[in-house]
Amino acid sequence: xxxxxxxxxxxxxxxxxxxxxxxxxxxxxxxxxxxxxxxxxxxxxxxxxxxxxxxxxxxxxxxxxxxxxxxxxxxxxxxxxxxxxxxxxxxxxxxxxxxxxxxxxxxxxxxxxxxxxxxxxxxxxxxxxxxxxxxxx
Length: 137
Known about the structure:
The protein is an all-alpha fold. It has helices spanning about 1-65, 85-100, 105-120.
């Protein structure tokens, strides 16, 4: 009977040691989970900051270069959103019908405006600051 009691006590001691080891590992896991949660929060903050900075960069680029949809259409742009080939085909079919031959009055106006343009002298450009000028390279 005494022997059985010692065995029973030894089993209890072994079980207590196992429970203590499990408690230690459980506490270590809790600490690790807390660290991971902090890292996840920091990651989300960085993701938010990244998205914000990306948006600011896009706004600055738009401010510098403009967005295609924000630029005003020039008069030479076609009204349709078709391809270049489609625009050519449309001009061949419809555009030539809209062409009006110039009248004599139009030709006289052009000749009258051409003479002053020829008399204007162009100023030479200052090329001293351009790459390849003397002093560079």
